[in-house]
Amino acid sequence: MIRRILQAAALAAAALFLPWQAQAGGPADPTRGEALAEARGCAACHGPRGVSPVPLMPSLAGQQAEFLVLQMILFREGLRQVPAMVEPLRGLTDRDLADIAAWYASLPSAPEPDRGPRDPALAARGAEISAARHCGACHLPDYSGRANVPRINHQREDYLIHTLAQYRDNLRIGADTQMNGLMYGLSNQDIRALAHYLAHRD
Ligand code: HEC
Ligand code: HEC
Fold it and tell me: Is CATH 1.10.760.10 what the domain over 120-199 is classified as, yes or no?
């Protein structure tokens, strides 16, 4: 209950912040964001230009800026609990997060560097589930996302499996509970198929 209230408060702050930033703070500054990411060592886990070569670490390149800011606020406020993300974000302001997000959003996305071979049957099964659950309605037909809906194309397969299972099992509750409901009833094999399909698109 307290968690939900805190979450609502953090998101209300984020919602207030985003328009404010455009008015009073000027547009986000990707060059400053790059310097902050460099100083904080984000590359060690997320790759030098946001394409992650590290198992289970999400790629950030070409990700939607609004989604990135919201997730970093959730980490900073302890609402999305990932211990590895606590130190890197310590003491950063909303303005800092907007600049970092602008930098990652500006980088070209790419498939994971060590992507394994595509299994056509598994990918076809994933495409079927995506069509049946309308994943492209929110994430867009090319899965590049928009605003607070993330890019899920060019994401690591292992991270997709991990995070989709977390949504299903209510271990990751995002800005809202839409994804939790959408994953309801999918088996581990269904999740593997979805992740394989998404990670093997060009
Ligand atoms: C020690 C490794 C590590 C470092 C350093 C690190 N991260 Fe992360 N980051 C993670 C892990 C692990 C996750 C989440 C994986 C999960 O949800 O299970 C994550 C997730 C994220 C996400 C959410 C992405 C998504 O698709 O949901 C963002 C945004 C992010 N990190 C930004 C940053 C930034 C910016 C920095 C530097 C200020 C940074 N990270 C430094 C390990 C790291
Ligand atoms: C009603 C709109 C909607 C639909 C339909 C939808 N999503 Fe999402 N999805 C979202 C939103 C919003 C988020 C961000 C939630 C958060 O803050 O955690 C998200 C987050 C995600 C993430 C996390 C990405 C990351 O980098 O952390 C994945 C993966 C994902 N969705 C996959 C899917 C798949 C697969 C489907 C179809 C089974 C689907 N989504 C259907 C709205 C939707």
Answer: yes
